[in-house]
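User: Please predict structures.

Assistant: First:
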Amino acid sequence: MLKRKRNLRCGKGLLAGFLLSIALTISGQTANSGNHLRISLLTCSPSDDDVYTLYGHTAIRIQERLETESFIRTSDYVFNYGIFDFSKPNFIYRFAYGETDYILGVIDFESYLNEYRMRGSEVCEQMLNLDSTEQAALLRALTTNALPENRVYRYNFFFDNCATRPAMMIEQAVHGKIAYAERPGEESFRDLINRCTRYHPWNTFGCDLALGSPTDRTMTLRESFFIPARLKEAFAEAWIIRPDGSKRRLVSDTQILTEEVKDEPQKTFFTPFVCSLIFFAMVALLTLIETRQKTCLRWLDVGLFFLAGAAGCVLFFLSFLSVHPCVWPNVSLGWLHPLHWAGAVLMAVKKLNKAAYCYHFINFAALCAVPIGWILLPQHLNIAFIPLMLSLMLRSGKYLIRRKTKHFE
């Protein structure tokens, strides 16, 4: 998924892979009985090493044995669409904007397998039941795709990633079509994402905040392939339907190449919900002290709404400026938006009390309306949002009451 960083230590590896891919192309065009191909789909289970390893990974393995009168040559390589380069200029900005370039790399199978063995990931191999014509077509497409002028592609988390690309390449190589068994029940993109991050509540919190209501629509089976495990499950039950109506299983054999090493999920008491409750309790306590002392804690309002405005700027950027899919409309912009910065400035200047009153009146009304948006769109509500929203609502409500009773410094 947002997977394998491999900071182009593939520099030499990609070049070697490219040279090999040319050799594979030539040999793939050699139509003799001495050329034996085995093509399989590799699915690696998630690991907790990094954020981008939480979703698993997919690649295509090519095993070739070329026999002639003078020599026997064997090769065993993996075509991997999940390589990206952290060292590229403005990588973080481009990633946030949605213009991340991924690379199709070619690496020898043992190196690939060892990396996932060291991570403790299970590597499942599904042997593809392709005829010689389909194998040649797939190999030709992969090697062409691995050329320097073709290997870079624009990554898209949901619709064009390291799992959807192999699926597309295999579907295009098949003579006929692949028929997948439908899954019972309905699932959304967010359902699958949150299942992958279920042991990482802060990642779930971030995804729920950044991703809008389109993430909650029901996926098609084909759209669920952005998660490698779902692609593996779909391939296991799929059939190749030829134009003449004959059919055969897409996967002829399945084997586990490395066993998953399961560690107990690290649980933390300080989940987003607990932290947001603590934050709300602190704001409520300070508000109570302020009320009893009949004073005005301007620093509290300025600091609170400045932080909310900063978070709102990030959401605004993702929703309106980035090219990421499924980030707009986002109900969270109703309570976390850049205009909170304006509110912070208004509250910092005593002479702008009337303008600040108008701001808080509008903000309080908007916060009351946000739950309606979650229902109407609809959009998933992360429970950790509620205490944070109540903190903003409490301070806006307090400002309105204080303005009305004239308790200003």
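Second:
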Amino acid sequence: MSLPATHREVRLAARPEGPLTTDHFAVVHAPLPAPGHGQVLVRNRLMSVTAAMRPLTSADPGALGLPQLRNRVGDVMRGPALGEVISAPPDTGLTPGALVRHHSGWREYAVLDPAEAPPIDPAALPDPAAYLSQGFTAWLGVVRGAGVRRGDTVFVTGAAGGVGTLAGQFARLHGAARVIGSTGSRAKADRLVEELGYDAVVIRGAGPVEEQLRAAAPDGIDVLFDTVGGEQLRAALALARRKARFAIVGALAAQLSDGALATTPISTLALIARGVTLRGISAYDHPDALPTYVREFGHALREGAITYPHTRLTGIAQAPRALVELLEGRHLGAVLVEL
């Protein structure tokens, strides 16, 4: 195979002071990376953007104590991607043409250690793009974080995002009797009800969240699946039934600003009095659950019990736009870029 001398990659050009725009990124031509001894060369085919990338553009690297926050001005952005193996040492078990999943998106070609590029099983999920969904986070929050069970009333914040669109569906699969979401517009609220099976939706900005949630769940909630924090977390606590379980999987209220470490004041007395379980959960801590999730997700997709809402943009030059539009709430579900 004839390879180009250069490829394109997206670099952080400046730290935002205010809303993120496409001007904070630069799409540049760079020499094609050359694999070293024992390394794999991959041609990226599909990448995803997520709201969790916003702090990577503004936080001081390592300020949050998270190893993935490594972007300095001039760095190539990073994110989940699917790529096609171009070359690999014979002892890796990887062959040219195999699809691998990794975290070196935002570039057309990537050099990886074999351990960083596990192959995907094309038969496990009906669409390889589903490997770039945030379904694992959604499944973990529902199954391990909150332990959703039959008859629960579940409140999913950020329900129109890549995580929330799947969390509500997983909650229903695991027996939830009523699923309530939150989002930022009436149009998205209508789609959540009509397309994704939500029973009711709280609309951010349409009035106090607690009042809207009380109207949607007059008897209270058993589970919070929280991707937002802030006012929505406080409202959920006000409506929590005894022994309610809260799974905290995201912090969009802070992530979409420069205050990535912003706090949410809540009543610890209410937690104690109602016996509420509050648990932060991250996919990084549960690699053992991945095979079970893939089996369940694949089966549900093939049976039509779950859909994977997503938008695709074409061309690596569209990656900055994809992230900006995601943060502005222009899309329902995940946002992917075909390279």
